[in-house]
Amino acid sequence: MTKEADFDAVVIGAGLTGLYQTYRLREMGYRVLGVEGGDNIGGVWHYNRYPGARIDSESEVYGYFWNEQLMQEWNWSERFAAQPEVLSYIHRAAEIMDIRKDYIFNARVNKAVYDDDANLYKLEFQQPDRAPVTARFVFSALGPLSAPQMPNIPSINTFKGDSYHTANWPRDPNGVGPAKLDFSNKRVAVIGLGSTGVQMIQEMGKQAKQLTVFLRSPNWCTPLGNGPMEPERMDYIKSHYNEFTAKCDASLAGFPHEFILKNLFDVPQEERDAKLEELYKGPGFSLWLAAYQDVLSDPAANKYVSDFVAEKIRERVKDPRIAELLIPKDHGFGMKRVPLETNYYEVYNQENVSVVDLNTTPITRITPDGIQTTDALHEFDVIIYATGFDAVKGSWNRIDIRGTGGVALEDEWNKGVKTYMGMQCPGFPNFFMLVGPQSGATFCNIPRCSALAVDWLSEMMAHAKNTDIQRIEPEVAAAEGYTLYCSKLMGKLLLGQTNSWFTGINKNIEGRDKREVLLFVGGNPRFREYCDDVRDNSYKGFIMS
Ligand code: NAP
What we know:
Blueprint: E1 7-12, H1 16-27, E2 32-35, H2 44-47, H3 68-73, H4 83-97, E3 103-104, E4 109-115, E5 120-125, E6 133-140, E7 162-165, E8 187-191, H5 195-207, E9 210-215, E10 222-223, H6 231-239, H7 241-250, H8 269-281, H9 286-289, H10 299-316, H11 320-326, E11 340-341, H12 344-347, E12 353-357, E13 363-367, E14 370-373, E15 377-379, E16 382-385, H13 394-397, E17 400-402, H14 409-415, E18 431-433, H15 446-466, E19 472-474, H16 476-492, H17 524-536, E20 542-544
Parallel strand pairs: 1-2, 1-6, 2-3, 4-17, 6-18, 7-16, 8-9, 8-16, 9-12, 10-11
Antiparallel strand pairs: 4-5, 5-6, 13-14, 14-15, 19-20
Helix pairs in contact: 1-15, 15-17
């Protein structure tokens, strides 16, 4: 039996993906409510306002390709836009969609429970003054990198100076960027060397009186290739958006880069070395996503490129001891997400910058004065935690999500994540995920690939509306088949055999030391093909009633 819900659909999250999903459902005539835990739109770009934050995608391929008006009116000022500009872009997109009116803010969902009899979800909020709402369909656009993770260091709250996690950086109350904090007289520590830490370190190197980097796991970083966006280039982009769209759609991860369809060792050494040089200097993920096709799968080809990048680090970092510390030894190039940098390695040549090697002297605790390692107390005014996220599953696990029979999603995932197209899990009817585990958008240029998921689900919802379908759930066998497919694809790439957030490893969370299949790494075209095939075959694998 079904009963009337407060809303046909609730969309959780007001990032780029959630805003678009809400817009699509509203335009189709669904009674939709958007709910956002924070006080404004923007998702990760609202929260991650740390100094130096910027995109690693070429500006013109980040954002809403579906919105002709926005594409034609928006002028990016840099080739790789900084956080304030990206957030302004999202604010403008929201204006065009007139979407704020469909949202409530400061409404953080902490419980979503399916009522089998009524076929609806009851959503409860963390804020006690928010009354629960019910909805037939739930679209969770929570973001794979939205649950900030602090390090598990003892007595972390005893520090008497200022400390910040990069994803909760103080905001400029009158603008879209970070609060204007003065570090010129401060001794600053940074912990974490992922994409965030790299951006933070290169910025803090300019701002802090003294910067100390606490180094545990260095990454292979390559130059970003940023620069101003010349008006002529912007004009060219506007008149060629179709080509940019097509290029991203044809690529592995939604970026304007394509692999060279040759194996590295099939190319004469001189030619391949010249190519690697060119790619290293190229924009964005050139070396990661536009090199020889076997670099991410063949250990020998991968080692060749890793050695090439290691030499670059040695050339750029003057102190050979520091250079060696900055060269990853536990994984090859591209097996983890590659941070992009601008003069990052040169920061280590500055007088005001030093390194503490946590592999020889680990942190034992935080004290009121700073960071205690096994050999010394390092005193600071500011500690910055660039320690990442409870990635991919974390944003979902932080909500108590219950499906049929009161089963908890987290408990199911603890037995092993199983999804159908990364969009639904068996036993959780009418609960959809966008950019979650095994979604084609998670290992991708997110707004580009999440639009695919939004468009596909919206088409399915139009079908549901036309045929009066009230309940959608994947078959167990379909989810098992899809998960196996993800696993096979992952097994082909070296990144599937590496510990990182890509494979669900998080040293700060107990029990997260076994690799999981959290990504669909088959690429954008293959994911689209899979989705189209399901749709064209009467939504095979879904039970609809
Ligand atoms: P991350 O890649 O997970 O990096 C976290 C870093 O913190 C790692 O170096 C980790 O070392 C270190 N760490 C964590 N706990 C520690 C501890 N207790 N002691 C010492 N070190 C510790 O997180 P992220 O840098 O925030 O990046 C996450 C993702 O966000 C990126 O991969 C990217 O997809 C996205 N991102 C994108 C951009 C962009 O587009 N420009 C910018 C920033 C982030 P271990 O590896 O040893 O744990």
